[in-house]
């Protein structure tokens, strides 16, 4: 999935609205086609996110070794979000054609639909504030996420992506990383 592709006919969200970490948000709305991807899934607490994040390099190596072509930036897909408990998270990479699954390396397709997207330049630790502002922006626009509340404040998401557009081997300074959030909307079908 290329969350940055924009539908120029759908500009309701292209204005500046909201702020996060002192920066103005510039969310966009776009339709995204279904996108094949390879992933490894884990159940992690947010304070132990490195458990799944550290698997991303291993996944990229596995995909590369099988000759699959990448179709975009690596990402984390949040199937559930539980700020006080364990979240179901996938470390993934979009591919043109997925290799055969093997062990805990699996393949699937990110769902087509309408997504709201926003970019953040800065440390991943700032994402909580960016996500809070992004969600407030969506509320103000009357948009509904493809998300179901669960017990205890947890959430189940249809598709919530956090894509890392900066290659850390090229730019090791996390304060300069570009990260794109792309959340599917409820009216996606």
Would you kindly provide a brief summary of this structure?
The protein is 15% helix and 36% strand. It has three helices and 13 strands.
Topology:
Layout: E1 19-20, E2 23-24, E3 28-32, E4 35-45, H1 50-53, H2 56-65, E5 75-78, E6 80-81, E7 86-94, E8 105-110, E9 113-121, H3 127-141, E10 147-149, E11 155-157, E12 160-164, E13 178-184
Antiparallel strand pairs: 1-2, 3-9, 4-7, 4-8, 5-7, 5-12, 6-11, 9-13, 10-11, 12-13
Spell out the key features of this protein.
189 residues, alpha+beta, 3-stranded antiparallel sheet, 3 helices, 36% strand, disordered N terminus
Question: What is the 3D form?
Answer: globular
Individual helix count: 3
Round the Cα radius of gyration to an integer and report it: 16 Å
State the low-pLDDT regions, or none.
1-17
Largest sheet: 8 strands, antiparallel
DSSP strand content: 35-45%
Helix content: 10-25%
Task: Give the end-to-end Cα distance, rounded to a whole number of Å.
Answer: 16 Å
Mean pLDDT metric? 89
Q: How would you write the strand order of the largest sheet?
A: 3-9-13-12-5-7-4-8
Q: Which sequence of SSEs, written as H and E, runs from N to C?
A: EEEEHHEEEEEHEEEE
Report on the structure:
The chain has helices spanning 50-53, 56-65, 127-141, and strands spanning 19-20, 23-24, 28-32, 35-45, 75-78, 80-81, 86-94, 105-110, 113-121, 147-149, 155-157, 160-164, 178-184. The chain has 189 residues and is α+β, with helices and mostly antiparallel strands. The chain has an 8-stranded antiparallel sheet. A 3-stranded antiparallel sheet has the order 6-11-10, with no helix packed on it. The radius of gyration is 16 Å and the shape is globular.
